Amino acid sequence: MRRQKLKKPEKLLKAELQYIYNYTCRLYREGYIDEAINLSKNLVKLAFKYKLGGYAFKLVCRKCYVPVIPGLTVTYRVKRRGGKSYILTRCINCGYTRKKVFKHKGVEKRARKK
C-alpha cells in the first residue's frame, strides 16, 4: 500500500511560504545573493509540491529565482491601451517581463461622433 501525503491547510502553507520569502528578502538585502536564490528555488519546489506554484511565482522571478522586491530587483510600470491597463513587471537582474491585464472599474467606451 502507498502512503498518502498529508494535506496542509492552504492558509498555513501560504504563511510558511511568506515566512521563507521574508527571509530570502532579508538575505538579498544583506548581500547574500546566492543563498537567497537557493532558498527561493526551495520555496518554488515546496509551493509546487502542494499545488501553489502560481502563488510562488508572484514572490520570485520565473527565470532567475531572485526574490521580488519592488525597486530593488523589480520595476513596475502601468500602461494604458484601448480601455485596458497593463501592469508590467520587469526583473532588473535578468530582464524577464511579465504583463498582467486588467480593466478599469467604471470606465465605459464613449460613442464616436460622426
Task: Annotate the secondary structure layout.
Layout (H helix, E strand, L loop, with lengths): L9 H21 L2 H17 L3 H7 L14 E8 L2 E8 L5 E7 L11
Helix pairs in contact: 1-2, 2-3
What does this structure look like?
The longest helix has 21 residues, at about 10-30. This protein has a three-stranded antiparallel sheet, with no helix packed on it. Helix 1 packs antiparallel against helix 2 (about 35-50) and helix 2 runs antiparallel to helix 3 (about 55-60). It is built from three helices and three strands, in the order H-H-H-E-E-E. The protein has about 110 residues and is α+β, with helices and mostly antiparallel strands. The termini are far apart. The model has no long low-confidence stretch (mean pLDDT about 85). A hairpin with a 2-residue loop joins strand 1 and strand 2 (about 85-90). The radius of gyration is 19 Å and the shape is globular. The protein has one domain (about 10-105).
Strand order of the largest sheet: 1-2-3
Largest sheet: 3 strands, antiparallel
| Rg over C-alpha atoms, rounded to the nearest angstrom | 19 Å
Low-confidence stretches: none
* Straight-line distance between termini: 74 Å
Number of strands: 3
